[in-house]
Amino acid sequence: MGRPPCCDNGVGVKKGPWTPEEDIVLVSYIQQHGPGNWRSVPENTGLMRCSKSCRLRWTNYLRPGIKRGNFTPHEEGIIIHLQALLGNKWAAIASYLPQRTDNDIKNYWNTHLKKKVKRLQQPAADSFQTTASSNAVTCSPNYYSPSSSSSHHSLQGMQQPMNSYPNTACSGAPSNNETTTTGVSNLFQAWMMRPSPAAAAATAANCKQIAMQEFQEEQDAAAANIVCQEQMVMTGGDVNKSSALEMVVAPEVMGASTATFSLLEDWLLDDMPGQAMDGLMGISAGCCSDPIMF
DNA sequence: AAGGCACTCAACCGCAGTGGG
DNA sequence: ACCCACTGCGGTTGAGTGCCT
């Protein structure tokens, strides 16, 4: 017991924000060797970072297909919904939003959604206290227990194939879309051709799982079309940080993702007609208090 | 203009889980 | 069965930034 953390030696280990130069070194290495074996990354690249820091930088920032910026009302709704179901299982929640990282979702929840939900939950809770004191408003993740898996909307079956980042496990399926893969995107080609572990593990236990599998496969295909624009603006030895490594998802890819994503959205949101657009999905009273919601 | 405050988010920390030897 | 190396995850921190007074 008590194995020291990998960064414990401290000596010579750099901390704090990553520089564009470090990003480039890391991306170049992952292009050659693929993600994983993080222990060897600092050793082989000369990066003065611990392996954990390298992994985090990759998964939360450099990984292709990451969508940054504002969350859409749809995404908000899904996060709120899944948080009510799963609790603070950010990795699990992130698996349903393949373009978002668990860190992003966690941050967004803590900074925006938690307050939002609380604010809207308050009046609902007040009204509920007079009627349903024991079974309703808690939104506990245990509320939908595995024992209720006979329910049409049980998460148990479908969670399995979604546990890996779909967009990093590309099946290498050929695409009809024009793929302009230049710059940094070239760095990812090698590892993007790996087979999909999710596809290999497919068991099709129920209809929802099959649907999610299809979603996964389409995500894989979409990932093959991700266009990563390398915009390394080197001016007089300086690196423009803001544009050094900017991944841009082609509009047609986003369209495909959106189309396939609607399947998931249907499943997530179909019991809440007319509630999605306000971004809060009626979480305060509607979803959590309805035992047949899922 | 400047100081204080609140907010955001990248990054860190520590623990748990897992698989190989 | 046990140990250990490694990865994954969730909670937390703190630097940067913008707004307000």
Automatic annotation (TrEMBL):
Give the GO terms filed under biological process for this record. Answer: regulation of lignin biosynthetic process; response to auxin
Q: Which keywords belong to this entry?
A: DNA-binding, Nucleus, Repeat, Transcription, Transcription regulation
MF terms per GO, please? DNA-binding transcription factor activity; transcription cis-regulatory region binding
* Keyword Transcription regulation part of the UniProt annotation: yes
Q: Tell me the compartments it is located in.
A: Nucleus
Would you tell me the protein name for this molecule? Answer: Uncharacterized protein
| Entry superkingdom | Eukaryota
Domain Myb-like intervals: 10-62, 63-113
Gene Ontology CC terms: nucleus
Kindly report the protein's main subcellular placement as a broad class: nucleus
- Organism of derivation: Miscanthus lutarioriparius
Domain HTH myb-type intervals: 10-66, 67-117
A Pfam family it matches = Myb_DNA-binding
